[in-house]
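Input (Polysaccharide biosynthesis/export protein):
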Amino acid sequence: MTRIYYLAISFLLIFVFPFNVVASGNDYTIGAGDKIQIIVYGEEELTIEELYIDSSGEFDYPYLGQLIALGKTTEQLKAEIIKGLKGDYLVSPKVRVGIVGFRSIFVNGEIKKPGGYEYQPGLTVDKAIALAGGFTERAARKSIYITREDKNEPKNRVSLSHMVSPGDIIVIEQSFF
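Output:
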């Protein structure tokens, strides 16, 4: 009975419950600093448990050589791997690509512990400030700005409930009074 129970739980964890992927995983693009996982079912030598994506965005994959993950969604990378493996290497490859670690966000300015923190799905500005130890006494609580990693825009003033994306830089200004 115990063995069946463990097999059932293993099945659920592997095939039913998704990996740690952003809820809207179809539009999340892989960036430098993310950690991904590539699983090819039944092919242990093609499975990569954790792969850090560096600034080049390239990585070596068995049989396929250099692949580029930077700027692609997990679905796009999965499709590329399936296309490369299908036919010559496998008849019908079953591939799963997931995000297992997100790139950092950065919180600077009038907070107690400025620095980089790992992004978490559902992160808002107020939660990011809490991760960074909260406001200092001199913080201007209504002068909070975000600079997006992937945009060439000036910093934008935001509210505490504003959603944060991986790579964002949050700056809390100093109050004059």
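The two ends are 67 Å apart (CA to CA).
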